[in-house]
Structures are given as C-alpha cells and as structure tokens.
Amino acid sequence: MNVLIPTDFSENSWNAIKYAVSLLKEVRVTFHLLHVNNTSTTEMGPEIQGSGTLLATPDKIKVTAQLHELKNNIITQYSSNKHTYKTSIEYTSFIKGVRNQIFENEIGLIIMGTKGASGIKKYTLGSNAGDVITKVKCPVLVIPENAQYEEPKHIAFPTDFNLLYKERIVKTLKSVTQLHNSFLHVVHVGNKTVSLTDTQEKNKSFLTYSLEAVQHKFHSCNSLDLEESIQNFVERKQINMIAMVAKNLNFFQRILFRPTVKKMSYQTKIPFLVLHE
Q1: DSSP bridge partners of 84
Q2: Domains located in the chain, CATH noted
Q3: pLDDT tens-digit series, residues 10-45
Q4: Could you tell me which of 134, 166, 249, 259 has the fewest CB atoms within 10 Å of its CB?
Q5: pTM for the full model?
C-alpha cells in the first residue's frame, strides 16, 4: 500500500503522520512524505497548515534536510518493520504536485493534517485541503489538528442515499473498517416523515448487499439541523471517524464546509475519510 502524506513540517502535519502510522501499524505500507515548493505562487492562506503549504523562501538543501530529519524522527518514534518511508519535493502547484505523486507512486490513500474543519469550510474550493478532497480522485483521510489517535472502532457514514455507490467507494470503505474490525454506522440524513424514493431505496439495498461482510447498522437522523444531528450522533455512538463521498457535493459541503456559528466538535476532532469513485 502506498500512502501520501503532504507536509510543511508543522505540528499539524506531524499530528497527521502520528495518526497515519498508528492507524496502519499492522499494514505493509510505503509512506511518501511530500513537500510542495512553488516560488511562482502566493497561495499561503492562513486557513490551512500541515497540508503541504508552500515555503516562502525555497531552499532545496534545507528542505531535503528537513525531510530527512522528519523521516528519522518517525523511524525513531514509531519503529516498524512493516513501514518504509520515501521523501519527495515537488516544484509546482500544490494540486499538481499531489497528482504527480499519485501517478508516479500508485498512491492509494492521502493522509493530511489541517487546522480542523474550520480551516477548510470557508471558501473551501480555494484552499489546498479543499482542492485535494474535491478535485483529486484519490481517497483522502483528513486529520484535524485536535484529533488524537484512537482505534476507529466506530465509523459513521452519513448519506442521503441519492448516489449510486461505485465499486471503489465501497471497497475503500470496507478496507478501512477491516483495519481494526470497525463497526460501520450508515446514517441516513433526511426528513423522517418523507419516504425514500425508488432510487434511494435501490441505492440503500445495494449498500446493504455490498456491506454484508462488514459489521454495520442503518440509522436515521433528522436533517432540520444537519450539523447538530451529526454532532449528537457522533457523541452518542462514540464515533472515531466519519466517512463521506466527495461526489455528493451539496450534501458533503453542508456537513463539512458550511459556515456555522456553532462550533461543532466533530469538525475539529474527528478524522474525515473522503471517498472518491
């Protein structure tokens, strides 16, 4: 398995690395540590850190040394004969750098740190993390800065059943649940008084069939206040991770990106697994 971890050497990116090596401790993984350095852009945005943001003063020797030190720190603190590490510097835009790595190294998962959903909900499509999770066709595990690693014993999968779930989405979902024998909670977010359409029923049936080998249960949440419904569910079921399909942008943005006055702790403490077809 090849996993890409963009880094800017911040605490947030280190937190993502700690989470990644703990989550995949029993899996044979090559971790690709990437720093993106582009002198032609000023996309520094205060909203994102720990996700490959750009250095103001590019210095290849310095960055190479930092990557080498980072690699040694990981090996020292998280020694594992199942993990290997490679380092790369991309001199291009952040998204292009990430795409280059996916193509060259057959990346199966991106793990990146952020300053929580508050760092990606606002003007989301203009930020590095927002661009990755909506424009790069690779599963992404987003680790908020306040997330502390816990075995993901309970994973929530909010859905409105409006999407037909392609094979890759279900395969990724199943793979992650099998890492730690997680229990999957499929949460239908919608008006309980309105019946599912024929399309929604078919998609739900397909999901039921596809998840046969996974411990799972279907739940319903009232969507009058979507964020609060998700927050309550996360607390009630002690959810350790939230999985979502990026293609369903309207639904996805409501849960992860929509600006809200209330501070939702699930947005700042719970990792998000973003699934792509």
Answers
A1: 30
A2: 2-144 (3.40.50.620), 154-271 (3.40.50.620)
A3: 888 999 999 999 999 999 999 999 999 875 444 444
A4: 259
A5: 0.86
